[in-house]
């Protein structure tokens, strides 16, 4: 079964696919997250701030809140950005499941109220909105890094862009633009909304390509790239 785990691309969360044993659960996805990015993903700039050797003790879901109990290694080392990023990685991975809206953290069975040496306050469950600054303004949830796409392609995710407008560009294996469309999220300009579009593309050659998610600056119209997703693009 397929799940999504969230690494970092630059300093923003970026999802990647994982196959986990059925049934697909948050515990399975989180264990895959803790294993870190693959060599292919690392080669495309995906990283993790979760310390190697961190293990998952348990996940308990109650009333849309997942209590995630991790080993004490989870809060070892790192400054405030690293600490917030590793929290965001777990929160985004867990909340990809519809039954989970927020996460409460524990370390070796003890509730966490202040995380790491920077003393990040965790006095209650946290959700994606608490880490809005660590999400790209256009977060592509599908397709994911390494996926194979065919025309027409469905692209969905969330965005917080000026007037909720964004652009999605498919580049084929020849480096040519196979599609470059406008899309509109359900909200924007300070409020994150969702988008879900299906559109055709025309590739000149099958092979390694990419999806680029960007928006156009209202000041001068230049493209502000939010994320790139390496793909196998089929004609």
TrEMBL record:
<dbReference type="InterPro" id="IPR019606">
    <property type="entry name" value="GerMN"/>
</dbReference>
<dbReference type="Pfam" id="PF10646">
    <property type="entry name" value="Germane"/>
</dbReference>
<dbReference type="Pfam" id="PF10648">
    <property type="entry name" value="Gmad2"/>
</dbReference>
<protein>
    <submittedName>
        <fullName>Spore gernimation protein</fullName>
    </submittedName>
</protein>
<feature type="domain" description="GerMN">
    <location>
        <begin position="26"/>
        <end position="116"/>
    </location>
</feature>
<dbReference type="InterPro" id="IPR018911">
    <property type="entry name" value="Gmad2_Ig-like_dom"/>
</dbReference>
